[in-house]
Amino acid sequence: MHETQGFFKTKMDKYHSLFSADSFFRLDNGDDSLFYKKDRFVSHLDSVALATVKKVIAELIVEDHPVILDLMASWDSHIPNGLQPSRVVGLGLNERELKENRALTERVIHDLNKEPILPFPPDTFDAVVNTVSVDYVTKPVEVFREVGRILKPGGLFVVFFSNRFFPEKVVKAWQEAGEEERIILVEEFFTLAGCFDDTSLFVSKGRPRPGNDKYAHLGIPSDPVYAVYGEKKGGDPARKKRPKVNLPFGEKPDPREIEKGKTKVKDTLECPYCGERLKKWLVPDNPFCQTWDNDYMYICFNDQCPYYVRGWDHLCSEGNRGMSYRLMYNPEKDRCHPIPVPSPKALKEGIVEES
Ligand SMILES: C[S@@+](CC[C@H](N)C(=O)[O-])C[C@H]1O[C@@H](n2cnc3c(N)ncnc32)[C@H](O)[C@@H]1O
To answer: Three-class SS of residue 350?
Structure first.
């Protein structure tokens, strides 16, 4: 379809209908190079999430000895062992952090918000990786278009993000969006840039937080990892294909053992997937639960249960982003069912009996 026949006459019409004049303002609209002058040799995600970023990069960069740009780089580019790039350029704002980054072969200090151009010739890179930084970009469509210019045809652009950020430097559109909407924002940046084929999405959510993490005592899961990725248009269809990333998590329990466990739930009240005792849960009085006659159910609230942990990947692969399910036992019917949950906290307010 010709663009002018669509609902939006031009990509810029769409841009203006989606974003208001102040969508890309920040609490601190001051010079970014001053903010990033301070060294931050910190990890912006927990170790499980960082390992996930590495694994996704390992899956997606299929080129031999690729030329990579780490866009908005710091001291760690999350380049997996075994990738053997021929060149890794890091573009960022803090010179000392870039100097400490052992993966880099070149370092470029450049403020993308002052000048949304990338100082490289066209068709230079096999892959551009942007990790937990897209939320600080004030002219994202211009920058994405530039990424399209400097990538080789068929080259990969992968944008990773999570739910943590520097509040004073994040743009308003990101700050105000929920996690689901942030995926849509990044997908829109790709679309509006106009130089990429359709994007794909990877989501990793709800994985157990590492026990030695400084926030482990809070009982929150590992930081979520979202990756929206696409290829620059015009790639050679005969070249090696990039896989659709799928990193199933957790041991897959033996199906025969699970079936055996299900027949015993009535007596044991133990989850057939993890063996943990189910918790008595008060059925809420709302229209979604009206089909259940009983007042109580039993639910497995173990955040490490393989049924629940693998559910995030499983539902995402079926198009239900950002959802998992817990195992629920209906004592009236003596049956186990999945009950969907959007977050690790969901349903926990209904627990009436800690077993
Ligand atoms: C949260 S850190 C992420 C660093 C790194 N990508 C990582 O995965 O750890 C954000 C990075 O974006 C870079 N950055 C922020 N604003 C920038 C700008 N206007 N132009 C270029 N780089 C910028 C900073 O140098 C900083 O290292």
So the answer is: helix
Q: Are 311 and 325 in contact (CB under 8 A)?
A: yes
134 lines ligand 1 (CB under 6 A): no
pLDDT digits (tens, 9 = 90+) for 149-195: 999 999 999 999 999 898 999 999 999 998 888 999 999 999 999 99
**No. of helices (H) and no. of strands (E), the chain:** 9, 12
End-to-end CA distance of the chain: 60
Q: Which residues in 40-78 are b (16+ Cβ under 10 Å) and which e?
A: eeeebbbebbbbbbbbbbbbbbebeebbbbbbbbbbbbb
pTM here? 0.79
Considering only the C-alpha atoms of the chain, give the largest distance between any 2 of them, rounded to a whole number of Å. 69
Closest CA to 143 of 122, 113, 173: 113
Nearest CA residue ID for atom 14, ligand 1? 72
Query: Which candidate, 241, 240, 331, 238, places its Cα nearest to that of 293?
Result: 331
How far does residue 106's CA lie from ligand 1's centre (Å)?
A: 16
Q: How far is the CA of 131 from the centre of ligand 1 (A)?
A: 8
